[in-house]
Amino acid sequence: MLKRYDKSRVTFMANLDWSQCPAVESVPGKRSGAWVFRDTRTPVSVVFDNLQAGASIEELMDWFHVTREQVSAVLEFAARSLDAPPAVPPSAPVADAPVADAHTLR
């Protein structure tokens, strides 16, 4: 099946803090550090790619040797993350706060 590049899905996956999901891990040198199901080499992205293409959870379990609990944990984490308010980066300016300027005006 030919897959179309979906920038919104890539952005969604990149914006999730997968370190907070106990079912996955990122290990340097394993799949180039991509997020994979814990103790496997199966990328988390296969869940979203294949469900979008019409696969069932049972098929994912069979094809990628992951458990229903692992797939459910990833889906639940992603769903909870969608409901969470966006995190404000520590360097983001607070509204109505004076902005410091590193340059002196003469």
Broad structural category: mainly alpha
Q: End-to-end span in angstroms? A: 63 Å
Q: Compute the gyration radius: what is it?
A: 19 Å
Percent helix, as a range, is 25-40%
Enumerate how many helices there are, as a single number: 4
> Can you tell me the overall shape?
globular
The CATH superfamily bears the name: Winged helix-like DNA-binding domain superfamily/Winged helix DNA-binding domain
Q: Based on DSSP secondary structure assignment, what is the total number of beta strands?
A: 2
CATH top level class name: Mainly Alpha
**How many domain regions?**
1
Notable characteristics:
single chain, 106 residues, mainly alpha, Arc Repressor Mutant, subunit A, two-stranded antiparallel sheet
